[in-house]
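Practice problem. Given the sequence and the SMILES for zinc ion, write out the predicted structure.
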Amino acid sequence: MDGQSWTWIATICLPVFAVHLVAVALNKAIQSYSRSRLEELTEARGRPARAEEIDRLDVRTGRAAEALGFMTGLFLATAAGLVLDRQQTLTDDVLTVLAIAALGVGGYLSAGVVGRHYAESILDRLWPATGFVRLAGLPLNAAEVAARYRRRFWLAHNLSRPRLLVPYLIVLLGSNFVVTGAGRIGWAIIQCSMIYLILSYTTHRRLQPWCPWCRGGDGGREHTPSDPLPDDRRQLV
Ligand SMILES: [Zn+2]
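Answer key:
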């Protein structure tokens, strides 16, 4: 690859990678912080009200941070695919794969460890900036919005099953090897399906308290989801 491409990739990917790491650390911090330690810390730093606010909004912030981490992660994976596509030799390919894997896995693990070890401090320091993370969070009429997204919820639940995920990944990766004109159109359609998939996961993450599959198991025809935000710490499927 030439220098210009590298500059382009670094300009776009480095900030996204940074946001990704912050989102991972924030999510880990929310999962592992202790309320009493946070109270001590915020009191020592002269803002005792913050512990209360964090406690009130932690589930919602964690949900939003996870969605952000997921989206940035997928973006980076796509960018990594583009970089690999441009390598000239097999050695370049292997070296690039190793570099990307080391950076990606290393960054992800370190962000998780930092998030867990310094959970209270990270939450306190990052809190003023988490408003924008939650902006992508819940709409006011969440229950109504959720009712329109049954298909996305279904997809978010079912595509994670190996029976569907493996064939999908094979088609997705395999489509990169077609070179004919009509094949390229198929490739474009398949790549676009990724966007819908990303949307489905993000929607599910945001509106999980209203997902019929998370609540009842079968698509929840019998119950009516209620509007108040449940204190739900279940993980995304
Ligand atoms: Zn669900």
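Check your answer against the key. The first helix runs from residue 3 to 32.
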